[in-house]
Each structure stands twice: as structure tokens, then as C-alpha cells.
Specification:
This protein is an alpha/beta fold. The chain contains 7 helices and 6 strands, in the order ββαααβαβαβαβα.
Length: 210
């Protein structure tokens, strides 16, 4: 799969770059994508939810009424879960939502996500660039020139660039990631995937395809 390399003005540079079929040309494994996204979201959960059980709520332990003869159900104390203010039955307790996935499956999920974007013609390659100073206006102009302003954008850099990061920080639908920080969730969440030219080589290195 070959794509034209664009400059920041959105014009073709006359160069083409080949996207490795071992990444962008595979048959996407939807279940692998599902599991990796599920793990990513599970890892974001704090798991600090808590409700008080019967032995944790405050209240008297005195028996409310005699066991028999009242015509009503027996009641042992005010902390009974059936009473207002009583403890909660089987309520949430702090827990860790993280779970393990094999490295091969996570690698397959990332490849599948990239293949999905390539199949949807949602991948754009731009030559390596930088800004002399952080300018949000410059970044907005770049997005408009590349015609990727119709949804959430993921820009993949080969290495961190502070001026680019600061330029895009205030834009709601823009996310910037290094190749090494790329996740299936980030890729699938974006509608448009923009790769800088050097990040294509970084993807090949990440998947050991050089």
C-alpha cells in the first residue's frame, strides 16, 4: 500500500511511502481489538467505589421489638438492609479492574486497528515538520490543509515535540501520540490517522518488521 507524502500546506511532495502490508494490510481481528480496548478502559477505572454493609453503618444493635406476637415480620436491629438507613446487601467494594492480555494479542490488536483505518482510507502521511513556537493557529491551519478536520484526529509522531504538543493542547478533537505510546484505543477512537513520515519507520521497528 503506497500513500503520497504531503507537506504542511496539504500539497503532494512528489514522494510516496509504502505502508507495510504486515501491519496495514492484514485481516483485522475484531475480537483482539475488543479485548485490548476493554483492557485499556478497565485500567482507567479507579475501583474506589464503596457502600456500607450491615456491620459498617451506624445504629443501635438493640432488638427493635419482640420476636413474636406483633403480627409483623421479625426484626433484629435498625441496621437491617430492609430498613431505610440500613446496610446495603452485596454493595460495591474497592477492587482492581485490571486484567492481563498476552503481548502477541495486544500487538495483533494494534495491527488490526491500523488495518481498519487503512481500509477506511483514513490514513494520511505528512512530511516531518515542526513549529518555531507553539501556535494553535498554525496547527489548525495544518489540520485544514490536510482536510482531516471532519472528526477526531490522531497525529502520530516518531518522537516528542513540545511545540507541536503545546500547539494542539487546546484543541478538543486532537490527540498527539508518539509511536511508542500508541494504543488500540487511541487508534480506534480517532476518525482520521495522520502519520509523520518518520513515524512509519517507527511503526515497522515497533513491530520488528525492519
Amino acid at each position: 500500500m503506497e500513500l503520497s507524502v504531503l507537506n504542511i500546506a496539504g500539497k503532494e511532495t512528489g514522494r510516496k511511502i509504502e505502508l507495510n502490508d504486515a501491519i496495514f494490510g492484514i485481516q483485522p481481528n475484531e475480537h483482539a481489538i475488543y479485548l485490548d480496548v476493554k483492557q485499556y478502559l478497565a485500567n482507567q477505572r479507579q475501583g474506589t467505589h464503596k457502600s456500607k454493609q450491615r456491620n459498617e453503618v451506624s445504629g443501635s444493635t438493640v432488638k427493635l421489638k419482640k420476636q413474636k406476637g406483633t403480627g409483623g415480620a421479625r426484626a433484629g436491629g435498625i441496621k437491617n438492609p430492609e430498613f431505610r438507613g440500613g446496610g446495603r446487601v452485596f454493595g460495591p467494594v474497592p477492587r482492581d479492574y485490571r486484567f492481563k492480555l498476552n503481548k502477541k494479542l495486544k500487538k495483533l490488536a494494534r495491527k488490526s486497528a491500523l488495518a481498519v483505518k487503512a481500509g477506511a482510507n483514513a490514513v494520511t502521511v505528512v512530511e516531518d515538520f515542526s513549529f518555531e513556537a507553539p501556535k494553535t493557529k498554525q496547527f489548525v491551519s495544518l489540520v485544514n490543509n490536510l482536510k482531516v478536520n471532519n472528526g477526531r484526529l490522531l497525529l502520530v509522531l516518531s518522537e516528542s515535540n513540545e511545540n507541536i504538543l503545546l500547539s494542539a493542547r487546546n484543541l478538543q478533537n486532537v490527540e498527539i501520540k508518539r509511536v511508542s505510546d500508541l494504543s488500540t484505543y487511541n487508534i480506534m477512537k480517532a476518525k482520521n490517522l495522520v502519520l509523520v513520515e518518520s513515524s512509519v519507520k517507527g511503526l515497522n521497528e515497533m513491530f520488528n518488521l525492519n
